[in-house]
């Protein structure tokens, strides 16, 4: 089992309607300065609130940082044309200087698909086909009438691909055997489901397991944390630290926190728990 001291901790980039022009870059700088391992952007489309494009956000973060990894957690592949997405991703990989972690998934929110006119029920087929298309394009191959040409130096084959899926999905096995890792979500999974998912991932030989969307807040009233409750780190600092150790003990290599503030003081408080 991993301990908190050996688990990489990432932080979600600032997001939401109050975002300013410099918020993403400054947030990324603060995340790196506080000593965290990575910064992450998420993907939400058409749900009635404004959320930044994840690849553009990470490109901005790349220009403001030097060391941290930069991940999507996750990018909903079926919402996009695979050729256009392949070009956008490999451009982001170039800008990120090899630090991009491409977390991808089929999506799970019908509203996102309705907003862009894509059939929700066919999302897994589209996801599978799009991944295959993008990998071929990143290798310099032609797919149908599409070719991106020879890849830029350092981008051949595309970035590491991590599959985001539910713990019981068949994609956990594929994440372990065909791709570069698995991403589980704490926002919509329980402690029990995450434990089951990472156990399956390791049985299939998976190497890198990441859990994202872990809400963290220092609050006087701790959130519920029974086996079937959602995974959140909400409560006084001692409670948050204990739950962080518990989450690390499940064996995740990376834990991505979603704080309610991104000021330097709060990030330092979070870092002190590690």
How are the SSEs placed, and which strands pair?
Elements: E1 8-12, H1 23-33, E2 38-41, H2 54-64, E3 69-76, H3 82-96, E4 100-105, H4 110-116, H5 123-138, E5 142-143, E6 146-147, E7 161-164, H6 171-177, E8 182-185, H7 191-203, E9 209-218, E10 233-235, H8 237-249, E11 254-259, H9 264-273
Parallel strand pairs: 1-2, 1-11, 2-3, 3-4, 4-7, 7-8, 8-9, 9-10, 9-11
Antiparallel strand pairs: 5-6
If you had to describe this structure to a student in words, what would you say it looks like?
There is one protein chain. The protein is 38% helix and 20% strand. Helix 3 crosses helix 5 (123-138) and helix 6 (171-177) packs across helix 7. The longest helix has 16 residues, at 123-138. With 274 residues, the protein is α/β, with parallel strands linked by helices. It has one domain (4-273): Luciferase-like domain (TIM Barrel, Alpha-Beta Barrel), CATH 3.20.20. The model has no long low-confidence stretch (mean pLDDT 95). The protein starts with 7 loop residues before the first strand and ends with a helix. The protein has nine helices and eleven strands. The strands form two sheets. Strands 1-2-3-4-7-8-9-11 form an eight-stranded parallel barrel, surrounded by six helices. The chain is globular, with a radius of gyration of 18 Å. Helix 7 links the parallel strand 8 (182-185) and strand 9.
């Amino acid at each position: 089992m991993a301990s908190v001291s050996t688990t990489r901790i990432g932080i979600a980039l600032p997001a939401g309607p109050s975002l300013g022009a410099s918020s993403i870059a400054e947030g990324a700088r603060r995340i790196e300065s506080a000593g965290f391992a990575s910064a992450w952007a998420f993907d939400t489309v058409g749900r009635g609130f404004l959320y930044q494009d994840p690849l553009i956000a990470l490109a901005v973060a790349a220009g403001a940082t030097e060391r941290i990894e930069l991940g999507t957690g996750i990018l909903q592949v079926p919402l996009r044309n695979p050729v256009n997405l392949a070009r956008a991703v490999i451009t982001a990989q170039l800008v990120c200087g090899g630090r991009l972690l491409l977390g991808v998934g089929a999506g799970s929110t019908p509203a996102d698909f309705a907003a862009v006119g894509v059939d929700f029920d066919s999302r897994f087929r589209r996801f599978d086909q799009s991944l295959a298309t993008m990998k071929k394009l990143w290798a310099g191959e032609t797919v149908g009438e599409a070719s991106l040409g020879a890849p830029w130096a350092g981008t051949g084959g595309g970035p590491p691909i991590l599959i985001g899926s539910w713990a019981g999905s068949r994609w956990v096995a594929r994440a372990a055997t065909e791709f570069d890792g698995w991403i589980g979500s704490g926002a919509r999974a329980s402690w029990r489901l995450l434990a089951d998912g990472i156990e399956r991932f390791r049985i299939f030989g998976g190497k890198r397991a990441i859990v994202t969307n872990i809400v963290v807040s220092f609050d006087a009233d701790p959130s519920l944390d029974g086996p079937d409750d959602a995974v959140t780190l909400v409560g006084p600092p001692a409670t948050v630290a204990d739950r962080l150790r518990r989450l690390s003990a499940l064996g995740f290599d990376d834990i991505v926190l979603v704080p309610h503030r991104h000021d330097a003081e709060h990030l330092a408080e979070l870092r002190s728990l590690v």
